[in-house]
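The passage that follows is intended for readers who have already worked through the single-chain material. We present the inputs for a multi-component assembly, then the predicted structure in tokenized form, and finally a short commentary. You are encouraged to pause after the input and sketch how you expect the pieces to fit together before reading on.
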Amino acid sequence: MYILGMESSCDETSAAVLRVEEGKLAIASNIVASQVETHRLYGGVVPEIASRAHIEAVSGITREALDAAGIAPQDLSAVAVTAFPGLIGALLVGVNFAKSFAFANDIPLVAVNHIKAHVAAAYLSEVTLKPPFLALVVSGGHTSLFDVAAPTDFREIGATRDDAAGEAFDKIGRVIGLPYPGGAALDKLAYEGDAHAVRLPSPALQGDTLDFSFSGLKTAALNTINTCRQSGMEVPRADLAASFTEAVVSGLAVKTEEALLRTGRKTLVLAGGVAANSHLRRRLTETCDRLGVRFVVPPISLCGDNGAMVAAAGYYEFMEGRFADVSLNASALDEPETVYSKKQG
Ligand code: KG4
Ligand code: ZN
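Having made your guess, compare it with the prediction:
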């Protein structure tokens, strides 16, 4: 069977075709139209520009995804679309397109949670992966630990109480003059600096909690930069990148290890845009090796937003018989009470 996956929650418009044979998932096509260059001019995502760019790209990339997979709309068993969370105007473009596409071609529609989709990217790179496992999702909008009992059954056991890890990376990157999004550039720059040169607080909250807080770390890094600038000193960009990365990576690793010990899970999945971070990948590899835990992280091409992960998450919703209809709406929230504009029967 084939599933079309559509993603438009932030600044990537993506359409992908997933082929599933005997429960084995394979990517038949995965077309991603990134808006990064457009938003770079403003140093961050401008929601209205994002919505307009999605409108311009969505039909073309869907056609491309079907052509690249060598199939016609009639070959599809379902259309899966990210319905929440994300930028509302951006989400509405994908949801509206997917609804029309499903209706016009008489194909079942499936609503997907973007966070679950990031985790589902792991099934695409590790075909033998099966829950239960622990998942650390780190992206531009989220930092959460989930105990995953089944592909659609997630229990959040830890989360950031303020900013997300990716947001913090992007903010510090921007202030030290790196191009948007700062995460990837900061990752590289960190290799040139001393990770212990600048003292910064940990984002791992103290006490009996698996939660994080990135706002104190972000403020401390910004204060260091401002103090340097005010006293006419050059900002030690590489040292700051290395120390900031070390604080983020250590904080995430400490709580992830604690979560593995508490849940007794023997597999860790790392997912989301920040899962591309080389320092984080290395640290969690070490942690898992030490604990005898299997470590699964998608390739970098599947860490950022893409339609293939949406199709994968959609496949599992499909298997549970959870379908959407033309009353499907979008929501900016992590856990909307409903994404349907009329009561489901
Ligand atoms: O998952 P994603 O593509 O979008 C959201 O759902 O938010 O994540 C984007 C985030 C951005 O904050 C970006 O800076 C960050 O992922 N990111 C990285 C790296 N590559 C992307 N952060 C740290 N290191 C990287 N190598
Ligand atoms: Zn994302």
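Commentary: The mean pLDDT is 97. Residues 2-121+303-343 form a domain with the Nucleotidyltransferase; domain 5 fold (CATH 3.30.420.40). How closely did your sketch match?
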